[in-house]
Sequence to fold (125 residues):
Amino acid sequence: MAREPSLGDQPDLQALLDALDDADARQIIRTIEEPATANEVSERCDIPLSTAYRKLDLLTEAGLLEEGTEIRSDGHHTTTYTVVFEEVRLALTESREFAVEIARADEQRPDERLADIWTSVREET
Fold:
């Protein structure tokens, strides 16, 4: 099942910092302009496929990527990854705690996403 950040979820600060501290992960973010598979990421970033999967998981867990499913007419569907943020904000609160917020790119309502999925299915059949 595809993982995606929930609209109300606050990202885990350490997971976010770990992801952004990783050079391969930052390269992946720069490389993904449209939904891409792990194989495509591996090739574009010139990293081993096993490394690509680990970094994609790191970025997804941090809330910076979203997993989706590419529907294929041959029945062999594949997982795709999309960058889902435009900005990351780190702030110090009044109680001297760190707060992190991820500004998401063009969030769609669930009904809009479902309509997009059905459109994709129709195009493939």
